């Protein structure tokens, strides 16, 4: 008997594969408007600062996609799962992933984004692109929209917070300010009653409870440079405020909105926030990224399989 074959479209933001692709990538983010030479120089120098000529960022996503396929097929032997990649701002684009599934004869598919928290402006955007392409090609596709309170995800994040607190030798854990962070989005999502901020707070609270933290807060990072206001306070402003007004000397950043090592973690936190912390006299650490942690792979595998069952049972 042949196994039921399920295509899994694994979607994420995307990153260039090498430094010479930064301009095309940035142009795509800016909806076809090429960056000014100054903007391009700034972004390229950020990539150079974290990768030093070698470009591992894309590899992280590739490994997550491979890891998910492996985990799905190990844990759920009643079906065959084939994972495809679909990126927002780099090739293979979301539409390319859908097209490849159809070419390969996939008739049933599940889409999932490598971001645990739902927003109409982030995950919603991926879903719309995938849905439109699938409708055009006649592919049946359903989506996992969020998994921000999955017990295995919370376990993975809790373990990371506990491990990172060990870097503050001789300091009581409640004398370390733990700041959970995620990518900022335009403030207008608040008027739309978007679930993104609430889901992020729910994840933060759940981790704080499991670790037994009383000294924690939330901060935003990596806001876009646009005329419209973005959600704040920004993590750099938070560091200044808590140092000057509360004399906080130990800070642990836990970027729960990001699932792998890339620019927003390796530059925005490890270089930019770290430089400011040194200037302010703060001992700053951050939790390790999830990357291909087996607990994260199992989280994704679980929610994809659950969605298949839900669709099957109607």
TrEMBL record:
Record's catalysed reaction(s): Fe-coproporphyrin III + 2 H(+) = coproporphyrin III + Fe(2+)
Superkingdom in the source lineage: Bacteria
Entry keyword annotation includes Iron: yes
GO molecular function: ferrochelatase activity
Residue numbers binding Fe(2+): 183, 264
Family: Belongs to the ferrochelatase family.
Protein name (record): Coproporphyrin III ferrochelatase
Primary gene name: hemH
């Amino acid at each position: 008997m042949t196994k039921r074959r399920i295509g899994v479209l694994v979607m994420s933001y995307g990153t260039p594969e090498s430094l010479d692709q930064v301009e095309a990538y940035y142009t795509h983010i800016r909806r076809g408007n090429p960056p000014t030479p100054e903007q391009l120089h700034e972004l390229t120098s950020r990539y150079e600062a974290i990768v030093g000529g070698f470009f591992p960022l894309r590899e992280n996503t590739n490994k997550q996609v491979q890891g998910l396929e492996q985990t799905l097929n190990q844990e759920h032997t009643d079906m065959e799962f084939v994972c495809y990649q679909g990126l927002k701002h780099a090739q293979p684009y979301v539409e390319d992933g859908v097209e490849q599934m159809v070419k390969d004869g996939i008739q049933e598919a599940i889409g999932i984004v490598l971001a645990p928290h739902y927003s109409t402006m982030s995950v919603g955007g991926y879903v719309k692109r995938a849905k439109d392409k699938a409708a055009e090609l006649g592919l049946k596709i359903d989506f996992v929209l969020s998994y921000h309170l999955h017990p295995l995800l919370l376990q993975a994040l809790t373990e990371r917070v506990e491990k990172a607190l060990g870097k503050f030798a001789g300091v009581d854990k409640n004398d370390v300010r733990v700041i959970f962070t995620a990518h900022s989005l335009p403030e207008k999502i608040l008027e739309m009653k978007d679930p993104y901020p609430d889901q992020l707070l729910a994840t933060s609270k759940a981790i704080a409870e499991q670790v037994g933290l009383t000294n924690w807060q939330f901060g935003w990072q990596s806001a876009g440079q646009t005329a419209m206001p973005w959600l704040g306070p920004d993590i750099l402003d938070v560091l200044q405020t808590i140092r000057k007004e509360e004399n906080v000397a130990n800070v642990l950043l836990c970027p729960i909105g990001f699932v792998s090592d890339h620019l927003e973690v390796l530059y925005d936190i490890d270089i930019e926030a770290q430089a400011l912390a040194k200037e302010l006299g703060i001992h700053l650490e951050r939790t390790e990224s999830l990357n291909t942690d087996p607990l994260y792979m199992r989280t994704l595998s679980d929610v994809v399989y659950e969605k298949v069952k839900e669709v099957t049972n109607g």
